[in-house]
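Throughout our pipeline, every protein is held as a single compact record rather than as scattered files. The record that follows is passed on verbatim for readers who wish to inspect the format.
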Amino acid sequence: MKKSTLFDIISPVMIGPSSSHTAGAVRLGLLARNIYKNTPKKVIFKLYNSYAHTGRGHGTEKGLLAGVLGLSVDDRRIKNIFESEISKNIEYEFQYADNFKAHPNAVDMTFIGENKMFISGESVGAGEIAIRKINDFNVKLTGKYNTILLVYKDMPGMISQVSSILQYNNINIAFLNCDRNAKGKEASMVIGIDANINQDIIENIEEIPEVYFVSYIEKLEQ
């Protein structure tokens, strides 16, 4: 009888021994890649708690790097990702820490390239994930919805202006959450939507005065 390895396929849509440590790690890396948009020169991964202590045996590092490189959870290249040609396209570094305030399966990812971006997330079980922080802003992105991410000046009427553009284009909002550094300073808006949108809609949002950044993040395959 053939002995199974840690990276045998254990479900139709996952390679690895653990949904939270392996599949969740891939999805975290992939969603972070979609948020960052640009190809990074280097990514620093800081793993916490259970991820830090047992992640190596469960393939967490391999999963995170594979996701950042654009691989899906069922890609067999995950098993040997460190030796693959695709991994030579970027520099990467893994760090480890304990933090009782952090989720057991938490990771910080620092993308360094044309711009620098900090993304923090966690694997919550059964392959489900959540991005909790982008730079200084608290967010919640699960990858289940197409999402519009904005950074703008905190001022009255911004939510109304953005939602009016979506309403005009018959786009339904599934969820919306906002965060800000301080009153009248930079703020973030995360909008989950029930449809695909085209570049024209993004450009219309970008034209709103005092909008600094807009990114459209497509949902992950389930």
The first helix runs from residue 19 to 36. The domain at 146-217 is CATH 3.30.70.260 (Alpha-Beta Plaits). The chain has a mean pLDDT of 88.
